[in-house]
Amino acid sequence: MHSWLWAERYPDVMDGVVALACIPTQIAGRNRMWRRMIIDDIRADPDWHGGDYTSQPGACAPALQLLFTAGSAPLVQQRLGPSRDSADAYITRCSTLASRDRRERPDVPGGRVT
């Protein structure tokens, strides 16, 4: 989608644009619904203040959980946790790593620079 944005905003920088696997249309349906739920979770956080955070935002956790579920492939998730116990263990590991990263790098959203 960045190709559409660049073409519209910086038309003199390029001779042409090749937008692959996208169309210039509104986000709708399931894609829009889960994005809207994430946005609502973040904006409902009392620490949001229009995006001017003074501390690590708490609403990122539910938003990231929704993003993980909606944005991942079911077969990949099945391989990551083929049983109830292994699925729970995977989520526990992810939560533990995310918490550790937030403690180590409270100045960086999500805790870690990638």
Spell out the blueprint of helices and strands.
Elements: H1 2-9, H2 29-44, H3 60-71, H4 74-80, H5 84-104
Written overview of the protein:
By secondary structure, the chain is mostly helical. 56% of the residues lie in helices and 0% in strands. Helix 2 (29-44) runs antiparallel to helix 3. The protein has helices at 2-9, 29-44, 60-71, 74-80, 84-104. The radius of gyration is 18 Å and the shape is extended.
| Radius of gyration of CA atoms, rounded to a whole number | 18 Å
Strand content: under 5%
Report the count of strand segments.
0
Helix content: 55-70%
* Sequence stretches where pLDDT stays below 50 over 5 or more residues: 108-114
Q: If you average the pLDDT, what whole number results?
A: 78
Q: What is the makeup of the main sheet?
A: none
Could you say which overall geometry the principal axes of the C-alpha atoms support? Answer: extended
Q: Helix/strand-derived class?
A: mainly alpha
Number of helices: 5
Distance between the termini: 22 Å
Summarize the helix and strand pattern as letters: HHHHH
